[in-house]
Amino acid sequence: MKVVITAGGTGGHIYPALAILDKIKEKEPDSEFIYIGTHNRMEKDIVPEHGIRYEAIKIYGFNKSLKRLKEDLEDIYLIPAAIIKVKKILKEFKPDVVIGVGGYVTYPVIKAAHSLGIKTFIHEQNSIPGKSNLALQKYVNLVGVSFPDSKKYFTKTKTIVTGNPCATNALNVKKISKTDFGVKKDSKTVLIVNGSLGSGAINTKMVPFLKSIKNEAYEVIYVTGKNYYEDYSKNKFPENVHLVPFVDNLSGLMKDIDCIVTRSGASTVSEIEALQVPPIFIPSPYVANNHQYYNALSILNSKAGLMIEEKDLNETILNDFIKSIIEDEKTTKLFKKNLLDLAHLDSADIIYDEIKKII
For residues 125 and 146, is the Cβ–Cβ distance under 8 A? Predict the structure, then answer.
């Protein structure tokens, strides 16, 4: 199979795209790929490290701010140029399918593919779809969504629930022992993480919580984020708090903990579902369409986890929520069961099979 895939801007788009490519390579080792991304976002560094041919186009997202109105108007004129460049790539490569996995970079790529009569598939990770995917649905053969609730935003006859392909990857990663982080083997353990770079707002609110749990019967692995570790480690926390700046292969560590406190990005939610780790979500309020809130709300409504809005976060409510999970076996079992019911453990396989059908 010859595949062009496009996704960009955040890991929440990039890693599902790579998971789809991994599944295609597994099924058809002789497949050829081109990844089309932006010239200035994180995919330009991540994708080439996986040995995938990378083509960059110059395009920017719109800011919807009056201060940036002039720049947004100028950026509109980049779209036709991007489509022309993509058409040239597609005509030379002759792909069987073009796959869009989110981010504004997907718009000119899918548009170009549609104009050339190439089969197209887009995937939406979040419960509230991004603007690019909503705009592109009329140009594609098939839409895959991670949350059943998302189907209502797309054309019913061409939309299927696939889950998030990051779930498949999470199942296959090697387990990391919590003892590697100084935690006792038999201790109830809570993992708290808020992104690879961390969150200043969350870190500030977590200081009194971490200082208050000296006498609690659980241990915490707290991921500060690379940007905050040095200053954060100057605090004096009790012995049951273990600070780390970053965890490579976080899903591996998730296999050896009892509860996770985290943001609710789509890929994180899919990994939690697949690994059945009882979650407490603190959605980021700073993302488009407040989609993290709705991702977490979907889990909350399914009785598969808890949610604290960032504005309501304090040491008392967080400690109460943690203990309501790790001290209550009935709640833990309920959350695990419902997470498994929500999970699409074969998401990457579903996507591969559907792509084969449309081509």
Answer: yes
